[in-house]
Every structure is written in structure tokens, then in C-alpha cells.
Amino acid sequence: MFYDQAHITVRGGDGGNGVVAFRREKYIPFGGPSGGNGGGGGSVYLRANERLNTLIAFSRVRRYVAQDGTHGSGKSQQGKSGDDLIVDVPLGTLVYDRASNELLGDLVRDGQLLLVARGGRGGRGNEVFKSSARQTPKFAERGEPGQIVELDLELKLIADVGLLGMPNAGKSTLLAAVSAARPKIADYPFTTLNPMLGVIEQDGQTFVMADIPGLIEGAHTGSGLGLQFLRHVERTRLLVHLVSGEGKDPLADYHTINRELALYDEQLAEVPQIAVLTNLDISEVREAAPRLLKALQEASGEAYAISAVTGEGLIELKRAILARLASLPVPALPDELPVLTPQAPSERGWRVSRVEAGVYRVQGKEIERLAIMTDWNVPEAWERFERILVARGISVALIAAGVGEGDMVRFGEIELEWHA
Hints:
The protein is of the alpha/beta class. It has three domains: 5-155, Spo0b-associated Gtp-binding Protein, Chain: A; 161-327, Rossmann fold (3-Layer(aba) Sandwich), CATH 3.40.50; 351-417, GTP-binding protein OBG, C-terminal domain (GMP Synthetase, Chain A, domain 3). The protein has helices at residues 171-178, 227-230, 250-264, 283-300, 314-327, 365-373, 379-391, 394-401, and strands at 5-11, 44-49, 63-65, 85-90, 93-97, 102-107, 113-117, 148-155, 161-164, 196-202, 205-211, 238-244, 273-278, 303-305, 351-356, 359-363, 408-411, 414-417. It has a six-stranded mixed beta sheet with strand order 10-11-9-12-13-14, with helices on both faces. The longest helix has 18 residues, at 283-300. Residues 183-193, 216-227 and 337-345 have low confidence and may be disordered.
């Protein structure tokens, strides 16, 4: 089975906790705080790999987690940062945020990296919080959890040329005849169930050709193999439209396929085409070839007749494809896209809202991070968080919104009980 879609979950590593420690050395009675910071968690990246051509690996493993940072320690020792996790995907992979359906990236260059889940920041040790007013802080921050993101992956194969045609038009036979690809070939419709890629060489030049499983009338609505593979035609620069000379009405077949392309995506109907009449080795087809070639020439602007079995016309066709590709612009590769940009205009921004009676929410990237990194088991850490709420005007905003004694206030995943 060909896997060109996948759903995975990625998670950045958690940051390590900061530590509370004090210097205890001989002859230094007042050594002061020496708790080190925790290490940052590793991030998760997707990397385009030209050696891959399917998403089958994601049918077996659906969750990818980067390494956590380690905790800080005494003597001002920093925790070790977690290693990043790099997950390889095929060239042509589109990456979507499942929650918002936002396109995060289009991986089209070999080695291209896309950050999809950031590691959490390491918590700060008590040494950081020493000040003239607070000589011996007895609290430290917890590590920030890594991001958890659900992703939808969609593969659109990257090829210079796409082979189109009805089932049994001879696409697989042609690809096998002109490249080292070995698609399944048999005398029945829908022999090709998966897209196949082949590299074709002629006169010292090469191009990549994709054999797309056969289309039938109604493909744009899902008939036959339909929508499952039409997406793979979208990236091609040139379409080679194969028409079987053995068909009941070859010209009707040609127009049916083009109609399906236009119904699926009008832009696909504008992709340049070369029409190719196949099965020239059959006497009945050879007799009808002049008439059919003339009609195909009028319909497409360029038409050839071949026999993939005997090799007749193949060199001429390959040279025609190379000449046509040389005249077509190379599509610009998409720019790398930023990943998971925060919703708030700035990290320090915040907003207070009433969720329901007795429940309020404070939203803001930085204040939510501070809440989750606060060690609520330590009274001094509580006091520090309360001072931050006052200093930033959040306490006043909550009171103005109607918060009262014993009400719940949410900061992201943290719920606190309000006391005046």
C-alpha cells in the first residue's frame, strides 16, 4: 500500500528544573545561593530526505518526542540541554497543524528542516533570583513543558513529468521501457495502484517521470482511484498524456481525462501536455495512427506515436520532452514558513476574561509560562508570582472583571484559587 497521508503527534522535550542550593565551603560562612539552571528541552524537526518516497514509516510510529533537559545542580552547574529529534520525510511533504489546518511548511529541498515542536525552557535556579533585597532566595523555577502538536502530513510527489491516461493506456510499460523503474505490468485495468517515479536519461540530460495510476470518468469525485492520486499531478511541469490506440474511442478517452483534470483543479488543465498514441506495434493501431495523430495534434498542439514494446518512437519522445521542459520555467520553490507563531501579539501581552460564574482566565504566553514554571510547593515562589501579577496590572484587571474570594483563576493549565 502506498502511504501519502499520515497523522502524527510531536512533542518537544521538557525543560529541566532549576535547583535550590547554597554554597557550603570551609571558611565561607555566607556563600549565598548556587542553584544552577535546568537544561532546555530538545525540539522536534522534520527534514526532507530525497531517498524517501512514501510516508509508510508513520503508519507504524505516530508519536515523536524529543529529549528532556536535565535538572540543574548545586555549585551553579547548568543542566544539560536535551537533544533535538530530527524526523525524515520525503521531498514534497506538506505539513499542516491538525488543530487549525494551517500550512506550516512545504518540504521540497533535500535537507530542508522545519521546526514543528519547540522544547521547553529550562527552569532558573535560585542563584538567578538573588538581589539586594533578597539575599537568600529559597525557590527555583520548574522546567517548561515542551510543545505538543498534532500534525497532518500530505505527500505530493515531485516530478518533472507526469504520465496521464486511462487505465491500461500503457503508462507503466512506458516508464519501464525508458527508466530503471519496475512498475507492475499486466493486461487488466488499475494494474498500477501506487505512483511510481523513474529517472530518464537522454543525450546526457535527465528528468524525473511519475506514473500516476489510471484515471476514469468521475475521478475528481473519487471514482476509480480518483482523488487518492490526482494530488501527485499538481507539482509536475509537463504532462505526457498517453492514449491507447486499442481503445474503443481514443479521442473520447483523451477528452475525458482532460475534463477530469479541469474539474479537480482548473490550474491542472493549464499544465502543458504532450499527447502520445501508444500500441503502435499492433497493426490495427498503426493503420489508424495517421488519423488519430492528426486529431491529437490539433487537440494538444504536440503529439507522437510510440511502441513501448518495440521501442519505436521512444528516443524521439524523450527528446521532445527534454525540449519542452527546457522551454518551461522552473517553478519557484516555496519559502520556508515560520512554525506555530504565538497567538498573542507579544510574549508579555495578556488578557483577562470571565469564563463562567466564579471562573476567570488570564491568557498570555509569558504569564502562562511563568505559572507552569512556578513551584507551587514553595511559599516564596507563590509570593513572587503574586508580585508579578501586581506589577503587571493583572491583579487590578481581575478585580475589575469581578473576581472574588475563592474564585478560580486559570493560567493555561494551572488553576489557582483567588484570595484578596
